[in-house]
Amino acid sequence: MHPISKPDYMPVDELRAMQLRKLQKIIPYEYERVPLFRRRCDEKGVHPRDLATLKDLARFPFMKKTDLRDEYPLGLTAAPMHDIVRFHCSSGTTGKPICIPSTQGDIDIWSEGVARCLAMYGLTADDILQVSYGYGLFTGGLGAHYGGEKLGCAVLPTGAGNTEKQIMLMQDLGVTAIACTPSYFLHLATTAEKMGVDFRRDTKLRHGIFGAEPWTNEIRAKIESIAGITAHDIYGLTEIAGPGVAGNCGRCNGLHVWEDHFYPEIIDPDTLEVLPDGEQGELVFTTLDRFGTPMIRYRTRDISRLQTGRCECGRTMRVMDRISARSDDMLIVHGVNVFPSQIETGLMKVPEVAPHYQIVLSSTDTLDLFEIKVEVVAEAFSDNIRDLEALRRRVLAAVKGIIGLTPKITLVGPGTLPRSEGKIKRVIDNRRK
Ligand code: DLL
To answer: Which of 31, 85, 102, 131 has the fewest other C-beta atoms within 10 Å?
Structure first.
């Protein structure tokens, strides 16, 4: 076992005691330094000294993305600028971005989180890791980069874009692992095919480290079969660090949360009550030892579940379900709740469907129009209208079987829909708000 993985196996009672100890430090620290947090605690009638057990955390107020936006740029920064070494920012859904300043200690914890994920996926110092996440304000590039270096990998910092050159470098340097969004990997794979490059035959690629956007197990299977690699899931968010908050070990269908640094809770997003392990709800994180911009009970909007029981890999860190939905990406169409991931699962059941689709919503005075544009693989995109109509019906049946609605299915030819270098935008909602 690589020494970086040691905390993954910490005895649970030690872990809980450590979490409490860290909370008893970070909560008073935040209370003393961040006026918004102090005011909210005072309003709730709760004081840092009330934190005697882990359960007491539930008495403290939540933080949300809007707090970061309202307090932009530095209102939630707890450390003096002297101690800050890095800023990362992420766009909010509207208007101003959010800004997360980090100390050197924060960056170290984050890099450790990514390195622990990479070690768990089976990477070692012998691997050559191509980082094709965007570098810059987005945490994907630098996060994967520092994590890779921490493990001792040779990092190739291509960033996103310039796809043909990426494929050339991958071949020439013998890259064994790539970190990028799953949608960008699919774009890389199509470009490689056009260049006559077969990942299995012409590269040494074995691992893909994918995250930053939801991707179903069906897309995962597709990626693995196209490229002959193992597709690993990595999760994280700017507010809590970046990638490497959690990752999947390959033994269970979920992600181990590095809860010695990032304390997870699941809440009911309506009542805000903490739910027991095993129940699905909104994922909430407290950063236990990040001192630049600590987040206390940060509401991620991601829907997940903390699994009960121990994973057979032996890690003691709790497993969260893969993120299939965000509470804010649920679409309501004709009064029915629909998640894009359900549509993706339906589409991927049809072998002739390529992993590229777009959901388009528009409205007339009285009606929502619900269309799914679906790319078809080259071999199936024939001129024969009858064949295509039969395929369209099969696609519709696969989607309808899951969501219970009848969207308009439009089949389009290979390479028609927009590709992305970063996070893909699958839903175009032109309905009147
Ligand atoms: O996306 C950090 C990251 C970079 C994670 C690279 C993994 C790899 P943000 O831009 O702040 O940070 O977006 C965070 O992206 O709340 C989830 O909704 C979504 N997300 C991140 N990882 C996954 C994943 C980065 N593995 C938001 N599966 C999160 C599903 C994910 N959704």
So the answer is: 85
Q: Do residue 145 and residue 275 come from a single domain?
A: yes
Q: Looking at the structure, tell me whether residues 337 and 314 fall in a common domain.
A: no
Domain C-terminal end among 281, 305, 327: 327
CA distance 5 to 20: 22
Ligand 1 first shell, C-beta below 6 A: 90, 133, 139-140, 143, 211-214, 233-238, 242-243, 300, 302, 323, 326
The answer to pTM > 0.70 is yes
**How many helices, marked H, and strands, marked E, lie in the chain?**
11, 20
Whole-number Å distance between alpha carbons of 302 and 284: 8
Same domain, residue pair 247 and 346: no
pLDDT single digits (tens) 327-370: 777 888 877 888 899 999 999 999 999 999 999 999 877 677 99
DSSP letter at 164? H
Q: Determine which residue's CA is closest to atom 13 belonging to ligand 1.
A: 237
Q: Whose CA is nearest to atom 18 of ligand 1?
A: 302
Amino acid 248: pLDDT: 98
Domain region containing 268: 1-327
Here the tokens at position 393 are 């019906």
Token couple for 146: 């520092």
- Confidence at residue 433, expressed as pLDDT on a 0 to 100 scale: 62
Q: Strands 177-180 and 128-131: what pairing?
A: parallel
Residues 169-204 have pLDDT tens digits of 999 999 999 999 999 999 999 999 999 999 999 999
Report helix, strand or coil for 246: strand
Q: How far is the C-alpha of 87 from the C-alpha of 147, rounded, in Å?
A: 17
Q: Give bridge partners of residue 306 from the DSSP assignment.
A: 320
